[in-house]
Amino acid sequence: PRVYQRYGKPVRSVVLYLMEPTPTTKIETEFRMVVQRREVAVIRYDVVCLWEIEPDRAHLADHPALLALTPLMKGVEPAELEDLVQLATRAPWDEHTRIDVVALLTLFGGQRFGQDVVTSITRRLGMLKDIIQESPLYELAREYGEVRGLRHACLALTKTKAPRLVSVL
């Protein structure tokens, strides 16, 4: 509403689903905010389900975000992931965009096809590991893993040295 009021331009709300939900999950097309039994806002939105969309393979190199999301799209096979990664590394974008797209391709490819597929590609494309490690996404995952590892180490130490405190922790 604020964009429409300020600029007089229509706004189209869209929800992008990356992964297909379970069969029992209902995909909604509106959000109703109710406060004290009074409806105060209704937001209607279009739904885009990536697993139902065929990628436009001819134009993937023109759109970094679409290329990054391609592993989640309809008809994409695990064998194509390596070609998508190579396309991203040769794309005419700036270095940071290439790094981010490769990191997202491996993340989404791993989510859909499994870690074995990504590991296999990483072994075949030696430079891929270096590119992924330059990604801010990789850095966040590494930091998360370190924190998680420290928590597990602290819990293991507590179990050994002060087992009665484990339930409190």
Element layout with pairings:
Elements: H1 2-7, E1 14-17, E2 30-35, E3 38-44, E4 46-49, H2 64-69, H3 81-90, H4 95-113, H5 115-124, H6 126-133, H7 136-161
Parallel strand pairs: 1-4
Antiparallel strand pairs: 2-3
Structure commentary:
The chain has helices at residues 2-7, 64-69, 81-90, 95-113, 115-124, 126-133, 136-161; strands spanning 14-17, 30-35, 38-44, 46-49. The strands form two sheets. It has a two-stranded parallel ribbon with strand order 1-4. 50% of the residues lie in helices and 12% in strands. The longest helix has 26 residues, at 136-161. It is an alpha+beta fold. It is built from seven helices and four strands, in the order αββββαααααα. A hairpin with a 2-residue loop joins strand 2 (30-35) and strand 3.
Strand content: 5-15%
Mean pLDDT: 84
Shape: extended
Question: Count of helical segments?
Answer: 7
- Helix/strand/pairing category: alpha+beta
**How far from one another are the termini?**
46 Å
Number of strands: 4
Radius of gyration: 22 Å
Strand ordering within the main sheet: 1-4
Order of helices and strands: HEEEEHHHHHH
Helical amount: 40-55%
Largest sheet: 2 strands, parallel
Q: Give unreliable regions as ranges.
A: none
Can you tag this structure with a few keywords?
7 helices, two-stranded antiparallel ribbon, alpha+beta, 169 residues
